[in-house]
Amino acid sequence: MIQNFEQTDRRILKFPAVPPCEAISPETLLNSLINLSQNICNYKSELFSTQRKNARQTIRQIGLLLLFFEETRDLRLTLTDSVVLCFSELHLAFQKVRFLLEDCTREGAKLWILIKCKAVSTQFRLLIRAIATALDVLPLGLIDVGVEVKELVELAGKQARNAKVEVDPEDEWALQQVFSVLDHFEKGIEPDSSLMKRVLDHLEIRNWNDCNKEIKFLEEQIGFQYSDCDEREAPFLSSLLGLMNYCRGVIFETWNHRNNKSDARHSIEALSCINPEDFRCPISLELMTDPVTVSTGQTYDRSSIQRWLKAGNMTCPKTGERLASSDLVPNTTLRKLIQQFCTDVGVCASNSGSQSRDIARTISPGSPAAAEEMKFLSRFLARRLVFGSSEQKTKAAYEIRFLAKSNIFNRSCLIEAGTVLPLINLLSSSFERYAQEIAISALLKLSKHPCGKKEIIESGGLKPILAVLQRGLSLEAKQMAAAIIFYLASVKAYRKLIGETPEVVPTLVELIKDGTTCGKKNGVVAIFGLLLHSGNHQMVIASGTIPLLMDIFSSSDNDELIADSLAVLAAIAESVDGTLAILQTSALSTIPRILRSSPSRTAREYSVTVLLSLCKNGGAEAISILAKDQSLMSSLYLLLTDGSSYGSSKARALIKLLHKFHEASSSRMIASAGPCERPVHVW
């Protein structure tokens, strides 16, 4: 068997080399050795930021052997079993060399290879010795190649035997500097950035993009640690990640934002009100996969609350009450609802909490050094937002957006450092489209944190955010402003405050009308959040929300948007005024159609909720129209068996109501017919 060398999923410094099988033909083995050697020799043109000497001498030795392999192939020589055995050993060693060189030049892995420089040097030493051993036992006299070629093989063997494989002194120096910098951070001392700049220059990390590649690699490695349930190196990796975040924000002042302009738009979030807040863990803010209830009655994702308790906290994270015990009771009903929701929207329940890593573990810093690095960086970015140039302010906002994207501890540090108010000021003073998008995106990330919501409101951020929602320089900025409104509306007191601003709902309605699918969803969900305060219902109705929702039902093929819109309609229909407004539309014919045809169970359940409210608040006229729909009852009975407990209860209530109407109608018909006359028979 010959190894495929184009793997992309191999973990770094793991060498899954496969020995050639015993039945392999000598010709196939030789050709594979040649291809493998050529592949290794191609690394001569690659940049090695570390291990330069070790890599060069290894490549040089294999280059000499490549000439020997090609000569053997060209002469079509017959290879004895002993030669084939030696070639097999060389093939196995070359595979590992190929993997090692690939790792030494892997994008984003420069710092990690430096950290592992002793282990990497040891690996080079072992592989060169393996090559030397194979050449020592190679019966070169049995291979009829030219004298010069044999001399090259002997030279390669001699070099392999005498090779001095050790850590480069410059690599050793750089390694010591990294440890010194981390030690300074751990002690709460900000190190001299010029020293770290010298290390980065040694590693050929010369700009913002190079540094960002290192960050992405370290994040990936931390993810691997947790997914493999082997977290031994996770704290140290977290320290390195914090260091590179610090370097990206502090050392690399210049950044090519033209290459990153699409990032803000690619990160625009499409929210959903059918993923209600009680589906999200209050700690991680992500969809729960294993919900459990604590003694205060609050529900959390098991992994999140276990980390909270493991950190020594014996209070409820949401209420602050002291926990009577650390017992965790599985919430099986909620778990089933979440699993069904994931099925409806096409999300894998086991992975829904995070795309690349579990955000729950970011509640606390990965290490003491990582905590201090983040605090120093947060204070630096806050100063940049206040005192920097326009370019520096935009760059600081860009860094904040990156840092707060999926890390709860980072969010708390940035908020505590005072970044919210200057971000709001940047939002108000931005006359350039990109700067406004970055500022509103950064605020969106921070608004997910409870303290972020409070800071935004108390810093007077609502008015500037509404200004972006109304007159934003791009549709993307408006969509992100709507998303912030949704997160702010998750706080009970803020729903009323936002609703008291008369232009909010009409502006959201305009976004629903003219926005992209993402914009429509964010507008719909923001309105859903505001409807949780009963005082906002009249404004939502008066702003023309209902006709727009009906248009979505007839024009959109996005199941999630339709389900979101039905959730809003269900909230409106809870009041008599809302029901009367809905009955002015074609809802009684449109919603049963959705109930019959929608592939989303959530949409079908909200459809039943709307119809039930229309019947209860709309009286006999609404019920009579639905009673004429002969297919409605079968859809309701289907939901009784396939629906959640919530959906089944709504379907059951509507079935009872329709049955009562049919019975009452039958009674009235009998009563109106009067007493039956019996026929008289004449004889």
UniProtKB/TrEMBL annotation:
Keyword Transport: no
Entries under SMART domains matching the protein: ARM, Ubox
Protein known as: RING-type E3 ubiquitin transferase
GO biological process, one term: protein ubiquitination
Pathway stated in the Swiss-Prot or TrEMBL entry: Protein modification; protein ubiquitination
One Pfam family from the record: ARM_PUB
Domain of life from the UniProt record: Eukaryota
Residue intervals passing through the bilayer: none
Molecular function GO labels: ubiquitin protein ligase activity
Enzyme class: transferase
